[in-house]
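Handoff note, outgoing to incoming analyst
You'll be picking up this chain. Sequence as last confirmed:
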Amino acid sequence: MVQTQAAAVLEPLDDHRMDITFLAGESYEVAMRGHRVLVDQPVEAGGEDAAPTPTELFVASLATCVAFYAGRYLTRHGYSRDGLAVSASFDMATDRPARVSDIRLAVRVPADLPAARRPALSAVISHCTVHNTLTSPPAVAIDLV
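Most recent structure output, in case you need it:
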């Protein structure tokens, strides 16, 4: 019943809509555009560690956005994406509120990318949509329905 009410309140503007449903324990399913993503918590946090945590997906969202922008740049300029990879790590804040305090991304560029192209690539990937959202945070409204 709550799900039906939420659907009525949150009319989709377009494809920017997701619904999250409780599964069991500490796991949830995210449904968007016909896709399904699971989230869970580690065992020490009461979950079954059956899927990434929401925080891990948050950091993965930034890393994959950077990879996407890097890939588009490489293709647009005639370079191969072979060897393109992004590694991400993060730290949690030790004070309140609970949050990610630091994110580190390492972008492995393809061997055929000339050194002279690296500054432009760096500029492009530093303006991916997720990074822009972190540097200019959106308004967040949370309503109980």
